[in-house]
Amino acid sequence: ELSELTTQITALRQQNAKLQESQKGSADALAKKGTELSELTTQITALRQQNAKLQESQKGSADALAKKGTELSELTTQITALRQQNAKLQESQKGSADALAKKGTELSELTTQITALRQQNAKLQESQKGSADALAKK
Q1: Which of 3, 17, 27, 126 has the least C-beta neighbours within 10 A?
Q2: Angle in degrees, CA 56, 60, 65, rounded to 5
Q3: Number of domains in the chain
């Protein structure tokens, strides 16, 4: 009986040693996993902070883009208004140019008429002088 008990005690001690060794391996693995988890948690925190900064930057960029879009729309409206105004001015200028050309033609015709009348007047004066001279001789 004592021999059996000694054998059982020895077996239990060996089993206990194996369990302690296994438990130590599990504890080491658990500690390693804990370290990895801590590192991953740190990385996640850093990535979340980076993500928040990027989102804030993106929001700023989106706001700036929206503002530029509004400015572009306003400038486009101004350009359209200026083009319409320019078209009206060109039409008015064309009308003025046409009127000026017509007046130029009228002026040329009147100048021609004045020249003809002056020539006619000179002839009449010459004729009148001749008639006056003839009357004076009589």
Answers
A1: 3
A2: 145
A3: 1
DSSP for 73-129, please give it: HHHHHHHHHHHHHHHHHHHHHHHHHHHHHHHHHHHHHHHHHHHHHHHHHHHHHHHHH
Q: Which two tokens stand for residue 39?
A: 């590192």
The H or E element spanning position 137 is helix 2-137
pLDDT digits (tens, 9 = 90+) for 82-104: 999 999 999 999 999 999 999 99
Residue 110 resides in a domain:
no
Could you write out the three-class secondary structure of 16-45? Answer: HHHHHHHHHHHHHHHHHHHHHHHHHHHHHH
Asked, for residue 35, whether it belongs to a domain, the answer is yes
The whole model's pTM is what? 0.48
